[in-house]
Amino acid sequence: MTHAIADSQPMIRGSLGPVPRAVLVAAAAALAAFSLIFDWPFATLGVFQPFMWTAGIVAVCYVIEVPFRGFWPRLALIAVFLAAAFIAWYSWYSGGTPISQDMADLVWKWVSVGIVGLTLGAGAWNWPYRNFSSKIAAIPMMFIVMFAFIGCSLWTITYSTSDAKIYPLYTYVGLKQYYRLFNAEIWTISWHNAVIYLVLATTFSFVSGFLIAVFMDQKIRLEGLFRTIYLYPFALSFIVTGHVWAWILSPEYGLEKSVRQLGWTSFSFDWIANNDKAIYTVVIAGVWQGTGLVMALMLAGLRGIDDEVWKASRVDGIPKWRTYLQIVIPMMRPVLITTFVIVASGAVRLYDIVVALTDGGPGISTRVPAYYVYVNLFSGNIGQGLAAATVMLLTTAVILIPWVYVEFVRGKQTR
After folding, report:
1. Domain boundaries, the chain
2. Using H for helix, E for strand and C for coil, what is the string for 285-336?
3. Cα–Cα–Cα angle for 265, 266, 270, nearest 5°?
4. 5-15: string of b/e by CB count within 10 Å (b at 16+)?
5. Is the Cα dihedral 289, 295, 301, 303 positive or negative?
6. Sign of CA dihedral 124, 127, 133, 135
7. What does DSSP assign to residue 167?
8. How would DSSP label each residue in 106-138?
9. What DSSP letter does each residue of 168-206 carry, written as one string?
10. Residue of 31, 48, 37 whose CA lies nearest to 120
11. What topology is assigned to 179-414 in CATH?
């Protein structure tokens, strides 16, 4: 079988033939020449456009293989492309000094044409090779990752160092926006609320979700019905959850009024109108919404435990609670880490449930970082909003990096 595959390689390489390959290479050269002569499409795309930056990086990293299979040649191409983009960007925002804008545009254009030509040429060369069509099919995914996540994150960090009020005005001010950010009372309150929500919502969701999963793992009757009931809140949007809990917690027509109508006239539950306690109503709504997801993930982890573990613990006379604490939970480490990352990252970007439940009030007592970002982005203070978004991005990275290290780096070293 191996010899048959090896013998088929020359036939695959020769299937395209010299004429079609020459035609494709000629087409690449013609496109490059047309782009230089008529200034298309690079003049219309502008200087240092994220689209061209992303397309170039994806092309160099993923598509170009032959004759650039090695790491260092491709790294050199990336360095040239990024250097040209930086020159164009620096010239654009420095008013043409010390590098004239025409010269920067010319450098950027030549390098972009070169990248496009290399991509098409490498495509013509690589076409007969194995898995090339699969790589072409994966380009949209690579482009989305590079553009939507990496490119836009870099754009956010870059503009957070400006005093931009509206896009695309840019004047470099260094860390001035961050200084303003960490001296703003609203930002301090926002992060204080975010920490409260992160600690309480994560703790209660974990504990209640795990206990419900243990209950569901006992092979009870109507398990499917109970699982649907517990998962139902997670199927609702945070906007719906916020509105529902706003009605429930309202002192005028919610829980307080209902209990008083039952005869307990001294009952009071006005947290949603209390500056010091309103954030805890957000925690209640968040726990109600997220416990079902935690339960589902924990239940999947419990169902992955081998039955021999339980049989051995029963034979040794180990109580069930000790089996869970000392054997089952350590075996569920990947599930626990993944669940924590999902719940914690959701806590950092908390926004819509706050808008629906309290709208940041009473006053500013339930403001959160994402709320601060939205208010500044859409009120003519982009630089300040993007500085806050950058801090949120770094916080999310702090949460994700340990998970990535444990799951991919240390796990691979252990294996």
Report:
1. 11-159, 179-414
2. HHHHHHHHHHHHHHHHHHHCCCHHHHHHHHHCCCCHHHHHHHHHHHHCHHHH
3. 105
4. eeeeeeeeeee
5. negative
6. negative
7. T
8. HHHHHHHHHHHHHHHHHHHHHTTSTTHHHHHHH
9. T---B-TTHHHHHHHT-HHHHHHHHHHHHHHHHHHHHHH
10. 31
11. MetI-like fold (1.10.3720)
How far apart CA 204 and CA 288 sit, in angstroms, is 10
Beta carbons of 405 and 227 less than 8 angstroms apart? no
Q: DSSP letters of 41-97?
A: THHHH-TT-HHHHHHHHHIIIII--SS--SHHHHHHHHHHHHHHHHHHHHHHHTTS-
Residue 189's pLDDT is 92
Average pLDDT, the chain: 77
Instruction: Identify the residue whose tokens are 């993923």.
Output: 62
Q: φ, ψ for residue 219 (rounded to 5)?
A: 55, 50
Q: Which of helix, strand or coil describes residue 251?
A: coil
> φ, ψ for residue 172 (rounded to 5)?
-65, 125
Residue 255 one-letter amino acid: L
Closest residue by Cα to residue 50 from 187, 157, 182, 148: 148
The torsion angles phi and psi of 351, rounded to 5 degrees, stand at: -150, -60
Q: Give the C-alpha separation, 74 to 76, whole Å.
A: 5
Residues in the chain: 415
Prediction pTM value: 0.72
Task: Note whether 110 and 102 are within 8 A (CB).
Answer: no
Q: What is the pLDDT of residues 262-315, one digit of tens each?
A: 888 888 888 898 888 999 999 999 999 989 999 999 998 888 888 888 888 888
* Cα separations in angstroms, 232 against 159, 165, 205, 289: 40, 42, 15, 9
Report the C-alpha gap between 405 and 415 in whole angstroms: 14
Angle at 225 between CA 221 and CA 231, to 5 degrees: 130
pLDDT score for 58: 66
Encode pLDDT of 99-154 as tens digits: 777 777 777 777 777 776 776 666 666 665 556 667 667 777 777 777 777 777 88
Q: Say how many CA atoms lie within 13 Å of 397 toward its Cβ.
A: 9
Encode pLDDT of 380-406 as tens digits: 788 888 899 888 888 887 777 777 676
Residues 6+ apart with CB under 8 A from 360: 354, 366, 367, 371
